Structure to design on (138 residues):
């Protein structure tokens, strides 16, 4: 089992550098329900910054929804909030970041992210990390 965060999903949807390398990791991966909001916001941000047009933004949102419906197992964030808050307070990382790690810990899963701080905390917590070929840490 692999838990992925919004950075991996967003890089794939927005076709950021190395995005092709993330396809395999997203197949049958697990994530939390708020990831769709985070990635939707990244699509909006790409539009606002002029990287994509309005039709492209709508298309990418459709692709995101299909990815969530067909390739990802979604876990409710509410079930993970207590663990995530403890982790956030102990390691001084956001709830957004810690909730993915809480899922990986609870499920005994491997973890993948482009967020170097998050990966460092995962290592401290002995969560196995999946390094994606060509991964560019953020």
């Amino acid at each position: 089992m692999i838990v992925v965060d919004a950075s991996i999903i967003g890089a794939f949807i927005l076709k950021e550098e190395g995005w092709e390398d993330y396809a395999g990791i997203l197949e049958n991966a697990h994530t939390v329900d708020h990831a769709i909001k985070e990635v939707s916001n990244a699509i909006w941000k790409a539009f606002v910054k002029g990287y994509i047009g309005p039709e492209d933004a709508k298309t990418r949102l459709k692709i995101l929804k299909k990815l969530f419906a067909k390739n990802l197992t979604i876990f409710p964030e509410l079930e993970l909030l207590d663990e995530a808050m403890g982790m956030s307070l102990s390691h001084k990382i956001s709830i957004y970041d810690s909730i993915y790690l809480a899922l990986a810990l609870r499920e005994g899963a491997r973890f993948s992210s482009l967020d170097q701080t998050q990966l460092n905390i995962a290592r401290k917590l002995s969560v196995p990390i999946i390094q994606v070929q060509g991964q560019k840490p953020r």
